[in-house]
Design brief:
The protein has about 160 residues and is of the alpha+beta class. The chain is built from 2 helices and 9 strands; from the N terminus they run αβββαββββββ. Strands 3, 4, 5, 7, 8 and 9 form a 6-stranded antiparallel β-sheet that branches. It has a 3-stranded antiparallel β-sheet with strand order 1-2-6, with no helix packed on it.
């Protein structure tokens, strides 16, 4: 009788432990990056100059990706993920386009894209007297995530 009681106690204990752990998942931590704001484009000496405000203090923030196309729809298309949109890679051929450290306050960023050396990720060069559309997104190399894209704006570099 004593051994039956012992086995019943063990059975109940294991049943309680088993059932109490069923369906308990660790909550998924969502990683997000803040959207760049106020993108403007200027032309200067055969280059595009892009300026925007960013505030990304996340420790996994790597920098910003610049999207560019002669076709507005290619950048604005909501059915395409950022990785599918035309973008400019870094000189080493990777993302982000421009690497920056996390900032503890909103920061104004200014970058220059010379038209004679800037190529998008599929090999298209930028040309004089041609209208291009630009957007910027924050990027994390370690997590492979993008922020929502900034506003889309356009610019033309002429040789005058």
């Amino acid at each position: 009788m004593e051994s039956v009681r012992f086995f019943i106690c063990i059975f109940v204990l294991f049943s309680v432990l088993f059932l109490s752990s069923c369906g308990i998942d660790l909550p998924e931590v969502t990683s997000k990056l803040r959207t760049p704001m106020g993108l403007v484009v200027y032309s200067s000496n055969d280059s595009f100059v892009l300026e925007w405000w960013g505030y990304n203090n996340e420790d996994y923030f790597s920098g910003y990706v610049v999207f560019v196309s002669g076709n507005y729809q290619e950048i604005s298309d909501p059915s395409k993920s950022p990785i599918e949109k035309p973008k400019i890679l870094s000189p080493s051929g990777s993302l982000p386009t421009f690497s920056f450290l996390p900032a503890n306050e909103p920061t104004k960023y200014t970058v220059m894209l010379p038209i004679n050396t800037t190529v998008d990720d599929i090999g298209n060069k930028l040309f004089l007297n041609f209208q291009y559309y630009f957007a910027v997104a924050a990027y994390s190399s370690s997590k492979g995530i993008f922020s929502p894209m900034s506003n889309i704006t356009n610019g033309v570099v002429s040789n005058q």
